[in-house]
Write a structure and sequence with these properties.
Structural class: alpha+beta
Radius of gyration: 16 Å
Number of helices: 2
Largest sheet: 5 strands, antiparallel
Number of strands: 9
Strand content: 25-35%
Strand order of the largest sheet: 1-2-3-4-5
Distance between the termini: 12 Å
Shape: globular
Helix content: 10-25%
Oligomer: single chain
């Protein structure tokens, strides 16, 4: 079921009608696996339901439209944390992001304030979240992440 991705990357659409930050949708790069399955290739900035490297089902409403996210089929153990820096924390941004890297996390920036942090399966989620919560307590940033552990993918429920 989980073939290796081909080199063809496509954008899949994730509708976010109830997003807290007012964003109505997000496009994620994903590798086509076939049978409407995609391997997510970037860290989402707005949705907490999907993580980097999750296998998702997305169906195009028509041939000329991008596939739209339906469900997570298989989780590969990555976790996401969204961070937004406040003005008070901009002077500490480099320090915080460097520390995240030292703890094993990587990040992508949507702009100079919003970052999606990716924690691979080998990274201690609690250690990173505790560090970021200490930065939140100092007033440098705000953060959000999905409740842990995240629900299994629909395909994982039957294995």
């Amino acid at each position: 079921m989980l073939d290796e991705p081909t080199e063809e990357l496509v954008k899949i659409v994730v509708d976010l009608p109830d997003a807290e930050d007012g964003v109505g949708g997000e496009g994620l790069w994903a590798a086509k696996l076939g049978d409407d399955l995609y391997d997510v290739q970037n860290s989402p900035w707005h949705t907490l339901e999907i993580n980097h490297r999750d296998i998702v089902r997305a169906i195009a409403p028509s041939e000329d439209k991008k596939p739209v996210f339906v469900e997570v089929v298989h989780r590969r153990g990555h976790r996401s944390i969204h961070v937004i820096f406040f003005d008070e924390g901009l002077g500490y941004k480099h320090e915080v992001l460097t520390h995240i890297n030292a703890l094993g996390g990587t990040y992508e920036g949507a702009h100079s304030l919003l970052f999606a942090i990716d924690l691979g399966p080998e990274v201690d989620f609690d250690e990173v979240a505790d560090y970021l919560n200490s930065c939140l307590d100092k007033g440098w940033l705000d953060l959000r992440f999905a409740a842990q552990p995240q629900p299994k993918g629909t395909g994982d429920l039957f294995t």
